[in-house]
Design goal:
alpha+beta, Tetrahydropterin Synthase, Chain A, three-stranded antiparallel β-sheet, two-stranded antiparallel ribbon, 27% strand, globular
């Protein structure tokens, strides 16, 4: 019975060199996709008067309290607005928005995140935090109205905070 020869280090290196261009191509494609407005778009794809979603990336991962046990919570967040200028303001002020949401999420006990009512309350609190940041840093008021492409008035600011993923471990 003959056994196949073990691959040498040179053979392994050759195989690895074939994979590197594929990885680089995938990375370039994903960067191009994101910069062209993929996954929620950017200010280039936002339209006033239409629903615009802005995903906050990366997702939030925080510690939460559960008596004497350390638990983790992961939350994916998208913001919804009907004002294209708000999308641009969110992009410019993403650091304070992330900070406020991170502080909000990490200050929770396990009882404050389990169940649909608790999560809805947390979602409403997150919306208030985002709106406060935009009012403070970008002078975008929740009472302000803007005209859409069709001439109808739509609310400015962020109208919804949406949890696109929510995991507690």
């Amino acid at each position: 019975m003959k056994f196949a020869a073990r691959p040498t280090t040179t053979t392994k290196l050759r195989h690895a060199l074939h994979i590197i261009p594929l990885l680089l191509a995938a990375l370039c494609a994903s960067n191009t996709y994101a910069s062209e407005g993929g996954e929620g778009g950017g200010s280039n794809s936002a339209v006033t008067g239409k629903v615009n979603y802005f995903p906050i990336a990366p997702v939030f991962v925080v510690n939460i309290r559960d008596k004497n046990t350390l638990r983790f919570m992961q939350v994916g967040v998208d913001l919804m607005t009907m004002d294209a200028d708000v999308v641009s303001a969110v992009q410019k002020n993403i650091a304070p928005i992330r900070h406020e949401l991170l502080m909000l999420f990490s200050s929770r006990d396990i009882d404050e995140v389990l169940g649909t009512q608790a999560r809805e309350k947390l979602r409403q609190e997150a919306l208030v935090k985002v709106q406060e940041v935009l009012e403070h840093y970008a002078d975008i008021s929740t009472t302000k109205k803007v005209k859409g492409e069709d001439g109808k008035e739509v609310p400015s600011s962020v109208q919804q905070v949406l949890f696109t993923s929510f995991v507690v471990q």
